[in-house]
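User: quick one, sequence for these tokens?
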């Protein structure tokens, strides 16, 4: 008899092989807290918090399934003394079964005021490395293919850019995290791993419902040639600039409950729980995501909590 957990682990392994060893396209990691982790999808966001901002994130996907995706990231960014210029560093690790991907990139932004009503346009650029490692000893395989006899280690450069138009009330952004399409050919397993361009569109608006309550709907759309379009829509309420509560929906994938707490003006903690809406719902305990943000007041400035 084949146990359900073994079946799902086998499916994950099969998906990984198809994606990383012989695929036409592969998706970047996804986040439920994309509204707090904007630098990971758009380099033009660097410095837009107007202070030194440090954001850490941990995501455990499909809890209960061995080898399921697990993601950690940390982003650090700040404006420079010339406040039109922002810089940032983003490091992300994504694990799936025997594979581990690491992204390291430096980000730069330049902001131009467009009018006296606080409308600004930011241009962003990024450069870094994408590292893919596989360790087949971490899995147990029946009748293993020859591909499992050799680990895969690939390193690729990344060059990306983005635009970010914003005021204190709303934002719109578009980005391509990596313009370079890299094909890695392995003579031993006679296969090709291809990295293709991803496209990100983001947006959000803050509605003042009362003196103590704000509502922020937001969206993220991600696309890559050869893979399904991913669309996220969320709505968060902010009470007393302290407590956040909301929900999110990922097209044909999951629904999420979101919560957050502004512990101090410089510290925010957020939690998200994703309930899978596909057939995998019967085999996992959902997805958990935790976000921590620390911000340090700049000399001569007041650090006030912001929704984005």
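Assistant:
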């Amino acid at each position: 008899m084949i146990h359900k957990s073994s079946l799902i682990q086998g499916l994950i392994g099969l998906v990984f092989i198809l994606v990383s060893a012989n695929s036409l396209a592969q998706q970047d990691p996804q986040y439920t807290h994309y509204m707090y982790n904007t630098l990971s999808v758009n380099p033009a966001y660097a410095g837009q918090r107007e202070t030194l901002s440090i954001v850490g994130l941990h995501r455990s996907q499909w809890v209960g399934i061995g080898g399921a995706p697990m993601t950690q990231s940390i982003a650090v960014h700040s404006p420079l003394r010339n406040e039109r210029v922002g810089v940032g560093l983003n490091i992300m690790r994504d694990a799936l079964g025997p594979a581990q991907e690491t992204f390291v990139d430096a980000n730069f932004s330049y902001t131009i005021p467009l009018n006296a009503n606080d409308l600004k346009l930011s241009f962003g650029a990024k450069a870094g490395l994408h590292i893919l490692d596989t360790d087949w000893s971490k899995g147990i395989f029946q009748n293993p293919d020859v591909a499992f006899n050799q680990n895969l280690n690939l390193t690729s450069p990344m060059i990306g850019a983005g635009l970010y138009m914003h005021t204190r009330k709303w934002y719109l952004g578009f980005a391509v995290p990596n313009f370079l399409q890299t094909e890695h050919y392995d003579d031993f397993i006679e296969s090709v791993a291809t990295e293709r361009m991803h496209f990100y569109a983001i947006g959000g608006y803050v509605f003042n419902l009362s003196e103590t309550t704000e509502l922020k709907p937001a969206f993220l759309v991600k696309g890559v040639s050869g893979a399904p379009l991913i669309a996220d829509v969320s709505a968060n309420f902010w009470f007393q600039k302290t407590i956040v509560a909301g929900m999110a929906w990922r097209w044909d994938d999951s629904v999420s409950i979101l919560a957050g707490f502004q512990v101090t003006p410089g510290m925010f903690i957020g939690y998200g729980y994703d309930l899978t809406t596909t057939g995998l719902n019967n085999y996992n305990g959902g997805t958990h995501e935790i976000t921590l943000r620390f911000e340090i007041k700049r000399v001569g400035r007041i650090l006030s909590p912001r929704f984005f």
